[in-house]
Prior knowledge:
Structural class: alpha/beta
Amino acid sequence: MVCAIVLAAGESRRMGAPKPLLPFGRHCVIEHVVRSLQRCPIDRLLVVLGHRHEAIEPVVRPLGVEVVLHPDYRRGMLSSVQAGIAAAPAEATWLLVQPVDHPHVLPEVVAAQLAAGREGRGTIVVPTHGGRRGHPLLIHARYRDEIATLDPQIGLRELLRRHPDAIYHLAVETDAILRDLDTPADYEREAPPRE
Length: 195
């Protein structure tokens, strides 16, 4: 089983407005991300919400996702990862971690990551472009207990630091895996025209 976890609990401080609710083409950012993931070879989809959850939840509930409310979202992104993984089904084999502010989710990249993992190339599969790591991150469920104990101040990069031999860097041709929405300038650059 593959369980995708969308991280959408943050405060969007640098953006100055809730990133998940920003218009993005025909939808808002979080709806775009969820719909993109639903075209990927996954079995379950969790969305971790915290800041402004009362406004975001009505947008994602009709899409058939499972909402995980994370009251301690101010502890940082890793705490949202931990909340999502704790809520993932026990039978999940792979965990696909996708921050909502990386909106360009490509089904072909996710499929290639899963193929690499299932072929035994790595138990942590990271897409890369031009030598830079991007998103989403595919993690084997064998690490879920270890992730629960990681320091929120360091984050998931501590898991990668501990297990360098487990990482498979999947080189992809697109830089979409690197493009995120941190600032208003990023948003202006990345957002497709409203339809």
